């Protein structure tokens, strides 16, 4: 067949890119003519009711990828039952409000049992509205099947033809059956609430996908006169419709951190599903609109380091890690018997190494003099030629200081505004009491502690001069960043921007109070892929970015349409946090800090960006000021932070990866919200059992199993998900087990 396929990539308003499989795009751009594109434009203009002139072939906006905005309509079929239902008994907590008396479990019913209509009976009409039962109109009796824990049973159900739906649809008003403990899916398929809760309990306790559970039920039903079970696809639809009715209060908030935690831990989890499953309604935090503020003057600001000269920084790093003369001699001696000899004799190589190091040190001393004379004196004392010749071993505090001075990161990365205030107070009154506040700047604190003279209490003038130089340098860079960024973020937010998180895929405990600013002079602003090399293919998405508090309670999440990058945590904090957190912990804070401070320096002025302990080992070239472990040596508030709270929680969601291979099961977005809620409530019960009144006893188990499963909820919208089998437990404090035993088996009474 001689067929031509025309493809249009662009917006619904018209501008976009046209291609045809019969005529090359190069030919069309050179002024050629394609009858297929012409006819397609005309057809599209008629369908969209827009001007044909708007459908001209124009280039897409720079960096825009239409494939990241594939519109996929989510089909969701509501059930006949519509009233809110009780939580599972094992997920209740004392503060729950009773909606209605909990019915007794239904195991079986007589064959002639009739479910009757009531005032709450309804029909879900094609337009989405419900039509309720009218007792003045006639009713009929139909046949239905009730599925219980032990088998399926035939029953009868009273119905009323829907007066609003077209007759050919044969839609009927049916009973809700909430008080009977039955879920009415479509007036034909009825399921007991205990039966549906049984599946919820099973898959929250172990990895039990729908297929495996349905097979187990089929085998169970064989003990009951070979009763038949429904098809797995029908049960899947029933369970998701049932999950939408469970009442899950929005009570996720850490009792210790409150609504605005000072310490926030960001981490993303990669799920890698096809971009073809993306929903067109998704609106991650990095999305902008016509009301987004524009920062026309913000551009990349070079030379933010303590020492602007990159070559000098490199020479300093080489000088402070140089082997001693004895070590070089030992290497030269031990290499004599090596068969792989270079053209230069080993002793000569050793001489060349020492000579090169001496020249390097001389250059460092010369160029450091352009910045601070006392800095030269400190370097020469411990790393100069004389010190090297005498085999002088530099103190750890001095090595840490020069390593920090020679890093590639910005000076405001290690000296934020809070640190500047502490440094200024110390310079005004250089005493041990004010020096103690410099734990916010560890490399300076270590140097001052080493320099302090116990015999003649005080600090040397040379070290104080170095502190003043760093203070001036940090102030200059911060002022340059503020001038470069322009007006700061508006702190007045009287209006809250409301959106439906079930469609936008952005769900945080804090409401949206601002729009993400636009930075036109920063290239690839919306396409930042951060610094993670994802293993997913180019046609796959990334996953979920979640925010955690140190007590393993998730403060919600957002969906990442592309690879994980700095442009994920940044807009989430900008658009929802009234004030930036004091500490941001992220596995790539070394890149996130400069990214945030370049764009909104005033908003993040007091924020400390640090890398969690788990990922620190991979950052071999990053500055000590980037690591949480550096500050934990001095600051007890940081040493108490569980920096791996997000990592342990995100490990739960990785199991959803295997579900993405099921292309036929697309479910609504409320599913994981309910699962998350159930986990949190189980944890709440554990924490509030007799003797465990204090929060935090089992934070690494119960709170993780609370909020993070929310993140899979989005994938119930945008991904074809078969099942999320979350983990029930995480390792707890061993001392707690020693004192109380394994509390995970405890079930609250009642």
TrEMBL record:
Pfam families, sorted: CxC4
In this entry, which stretches build a coiled coil? none
Q: Where is the HMG domain?
A: 114-242
Compositionally biased intervals (Low complexity): 280-297
Q: Which domain of life is it from?
A: Eukaryota
**Disordered: where is this region?**
280-300, 331-351
Cross-referenced PANTHER family: EXPRESSED PROTEIN, SWIM-TYPE DOMAIN-CONTAINING PROTEIN
* Protein's name in the database: HMG domain-containing protein
| Species per Swiss-Prot/TrEMBL record | Leucocoprinus birnbaumii
The organism's lineage is: Eukaryota, Fungi, Dikarya, Basidiomycota, Agaricomycotina
């Amino acid at each position: 067949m001689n067929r031509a396929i025309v493809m249009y990539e662009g917006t619904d308003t018209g501008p976009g890119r046209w291609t045809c499989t019969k005529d090359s795009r190069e030919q069309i751009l050179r002024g050629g003519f394609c009858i297929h594109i012409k006819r397609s434009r005309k057809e599209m203009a008629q369908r969209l009711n827009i001007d044909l002139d708007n459908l001209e072939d124009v280039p897409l906006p720079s960096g825009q990828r239409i494939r990241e905005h594939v519109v996929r309509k989510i089909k969701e079929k509501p059930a006949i039952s519509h009233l809110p239902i009780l939580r599972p008994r094992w997920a209740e907590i004392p503060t729950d409000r009773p909606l209605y008396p909990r019915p007794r479990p239904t195991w079986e019913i007589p064959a002639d049992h009739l479910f009757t209509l009531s005032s709450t009976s309804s029909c879900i009409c094609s337009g989405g509205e419900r039509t309720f039962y009218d007792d003045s109109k006639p009713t009929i009796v139909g046949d239905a099947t009730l599925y219980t824990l032990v088998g399926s049973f035939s029953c009868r159900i009273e119905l009323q033809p829907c007066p609003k739906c077209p007759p050919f649809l044969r839609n009927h008003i049916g009973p809700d059956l909430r008080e009977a403990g039955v879920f009415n899916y479509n007036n034909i398929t009825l399921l007991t609430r205990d039966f549906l809760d049984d599946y919820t309990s099973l898959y929250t306790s172990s990895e039990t996908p729908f297929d495996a559970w349905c097979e187990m039920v089929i085998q169970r039903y064989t003990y009951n006169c070979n009763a038949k079970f429904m098809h797995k696809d029908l049960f899947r639809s029933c369970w998701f419709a049932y999950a939408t009715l469970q009442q899950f209060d929005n009570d996720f908030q850490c009792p210790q951190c409150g609504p605005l935690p000072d310490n926030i831990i960001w981490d993303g989890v990669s799920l890698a599903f096809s971009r073809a499953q993306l929903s067109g309604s998704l609106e991650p935090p990095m999305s902008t609109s016509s009301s987004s503020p524009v920062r026309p003057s913000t551009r990349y600001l070079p030379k933010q380091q303590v020492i602007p000269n990159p070559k000098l920084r490199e020479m300093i790093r080489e000088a402070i890690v140089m082997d001693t003369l004895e070590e070089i001699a030992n290497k030269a001696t031990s290499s004599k018997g090596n068969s792989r000899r270079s053209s230069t004799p080993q002793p000569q190589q050793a001489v060349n190494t020492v000579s090169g190091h001496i020249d390097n040190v001389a250059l460092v001393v010369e160029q450091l003099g352009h910045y601070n004379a006392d800095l030269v004196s400190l370097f020469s004392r411990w790393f100069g030629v004389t010190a090297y010749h005498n085999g002088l071993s530099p103190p750890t505090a001095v090595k840490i200081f020069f390593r920090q001075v020679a890093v590639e990161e910005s000076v405001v990365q290690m000296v934020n505004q809070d640190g500047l205030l502490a440094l200024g107070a110390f310079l005004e009154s250089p005493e041990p009491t004010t020096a103690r506040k410099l734990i916010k700047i560890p490399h300076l604190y270590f140097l001052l502690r080493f320099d302090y003279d116990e015999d003649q209490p005080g600090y040397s003038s040379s070290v104080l001069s170095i502190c003043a130089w760093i203070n001036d340098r940090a102030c200059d860079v911060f002022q340059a960043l503020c001038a470069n960024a322009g007006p700061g973020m508006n702190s007045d937010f009287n209006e809250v921007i409301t959106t439906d998180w079930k469609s936008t895929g952005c769900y945080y405990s804090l409401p949206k109070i601002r729009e993400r600013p636009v930075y036109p002079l920063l290239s690839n602003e919306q396409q930042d892929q951060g610094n993670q090399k994802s293993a997913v293919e180019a046609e796959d998405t990334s996953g979920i970015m979640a925010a955690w508090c140190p007590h393993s309670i998730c403060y919600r999440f957002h969906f990442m349409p592309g690879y994980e990058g700095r442009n994920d945590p940044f807009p989430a904090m900008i658009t929802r946090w009234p004030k930036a957190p004091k500490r941001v912990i992220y596995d790539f804070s070394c890149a996130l800090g400069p990214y945030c401070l370049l764009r909104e320096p005033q908003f993040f002025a007091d924020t400390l960006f640090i890398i969690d302990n788990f990922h620190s080992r991979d950052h071999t070239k990053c500055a000590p000021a980037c690591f949480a472990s550096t500050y934990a040596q001095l600051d007890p508030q940081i040493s108490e932070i569980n920096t791996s709270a997000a990592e342990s929680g995100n490990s739960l969601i990785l199991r959803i990866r295997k579900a993405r291979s099921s292309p036929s099961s697309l479910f609504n977005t409320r599913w994981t919200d309910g699962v998350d809620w159930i986990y949190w409530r189980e944890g709440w019960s554990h924490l509030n059992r007799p003797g465990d009144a204090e929060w935090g006893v089992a934070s690494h188990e119960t709170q993780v199993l609370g909020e993070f499963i929310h993140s899979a909820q989005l994938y119930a919208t945008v991904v074809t998900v078969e099942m999320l089998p979350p983990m029930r437990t995480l390792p707890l404090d061993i001392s707690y087990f020693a004192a109380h035993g394994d509390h995970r088996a405890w079930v609250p009474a009642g």
